[in-house]
Amino acid sequence: MSLLDVKNLEVKFELRNGAVTALRDVSFSLNRGEKIGIVGESGAGKSVAAFSILNLISNPGRISGGEILFDGKDLSKLSPKEMRSIRGNQISMIFQDPMMTLNPVLTVSEQMVECIFAHTKMSKEEARKIALEKLKLVQIPSPEKRLDQYPHELSGGMKQRIIIAIALLLSPEIIIADEPTTALDVTIQAEIMDLLQELCESQNLALILITHDLGVVSQVTERTIVMYAGRVVEMGPTKEIINDAQHPYTQGLINALPQQATPGGRLNQIPGNMPSLENIPPGCAFSPRCSYATERCRAELPAFTQSGGCLVACHLIDELNASTLKDDKALAE
Question: H-helix or E-strand containing 108?
Fold first, then answer.
């Protein structure tokens, strides 16, 4: 049995002109100790999916359909009090911006101890001892000193390590990392991702990594979920998706990576923009940007098709695969 099962999840936002659907029929699972990635452009629904798992969708948003099963409990049906016992305790989240996540007027120790007190009854000395252990675990230099410092006294990389330490305080089973390296420079990004990977393996943590960076996903995760306009368009083993993307949108994301461009030439890009939630086209939402789109694509929502080890929501997957095989054969000859 999976540790987490998201089934047919739907999220709506009530606006003045009516409700818009931010997530449509999103389904995926997560096993104990497994690392999965959720990728897509800004506005694809990645963060909404992550926030839905912890029931952090605030008004005017709401979970309007589906199930989020964690150890057999539907998280979308729990009361606020029941959810508080799960957030930070069994499922923790690392948010995007370390500069904004920490409280600037509290020391690191006060913030970590407060988190422990919210879920357990123990003395301040015991809580501080656990906080110190977690700072050591995330390889903070001089952890005793850092405990009594304020966030403004720390670098961006140290702040993110402290946020990871806070996420680990109560030994959760799942970590959700929402763009955890967004505000950091490139070398620090690599350090933070290496640290997350080491911690998942040493602590047997399951990880949901939300990112737009396919390079990071390829190094860290075992399975990948590709989202577009609030819907999953492809999912499967990360290696298979990176090496042989099936959906035209996934192919576009991979072709847009800097290393795919000719040295000195222009970067590849997907033409057009993702549609707004108020104006998602009928049929396949990617059809206005897809060079392969047919009338069927523009009129009919594609169901999932098994292609290799992946599930792909594309009407043309058989034709595209056949065309690719012909191209490969021609190149071989």
Answer: helix 108-117
Residue numbers in the chain where pLDDT is lower than 50: 325-326, 328-333
Residue 302 in 3-state DSSP?
Answer: coil
Check: pTM over 0.90? Answer yes or no.
Answer: yes
- Residues facing residue 67 across a β-bridge: 7
Domain that holds residue 259: 247-332
User: Strands, DSSP E only, in the chain?
Assistant: 4-15, 18-30, 35-39, 61-70, 73-74, 91-94, 174-178, 206-211, 223-228, 231-237, 304-307, 310-313
Of 196, 227, 258, the one marking the end of a domain is: 227
Give strand pairing partners of 223. 36, 237
Instruction: Count structural domains, the chain.
Output: 2
In a domain, 121, yes or no: yes
Q: Alpha-carbon distance 325 to 188, whole Å?
A: 41
* Residue 107 shares a structural domain with residue 216: yes
**CATH number of the domain where residue 189 is located:** 3.40.50.300
Could you say which DSSP state residue 267 is in?
P
Task: Give the CA distances from residue 284 to residues 153, 225, 231, 287, 311, in Å, rounded to whole numbers and listed in that order.
Answer: 49, 17, 10, 5, 15
**Domain end call among 227, 258, 289:** 227
Specify the pLDDT at position 316: 94
Q: Which residue has the tokens 């946020």?
A: 163
Same domain membership, residue 263 and residue 187: no
Of residues 83, 95, 88, the one with CA closest to residue 112: 88
- Quote the pLDDT of residue 17: 85
Dist. CA 102–CA 107, nearest whole Å: 9
